[in-house]
What does this fold into?
Amino acid sequence: PGLHKRNDIPASGFVAPSVAIYKYTPMGGSLEKRPAFVYSGVGPNSMYYDQENLPTGISNNNGNATDYRLSQNYPNPFNPTTKIDFAILRGSNVKLTVYDMLGREVTTLVNKFLSSGTYTVDFDGANLSSGVYFYRIEVENNFSDIKKMILVK
It folds into this structure.
């Protein structure tokens, strides 16, 4: 899950912009067609994300983390503020970054050492245009994940 460089895609010779690869899943005796991966961009810097596993303040919710986790923001869609929850299993350097649809960094919400626990970050998109954004968490070499959020004005 998460954001991957094009070179991580096994046996691929090309990447088309914004192409969905579908996965068929048995559902009650029939097959359900759902997007599994979406590719974005062309060339060596292309990325894809896994749709199934797709700053104004930060607070420690004092919960004991049992695993690393990045939750879907809420509300989503949002206007103009939203909350992002995540959990850190062990004290680590944590970076939480927001990107636009083209993969350009919009802002870094967290970039510091955090102790084990669950956290909530408030994100204010008042100065951004309506659209789809991605947020990515990186926890040293232990964990990374990415989620999609939608800003509607």
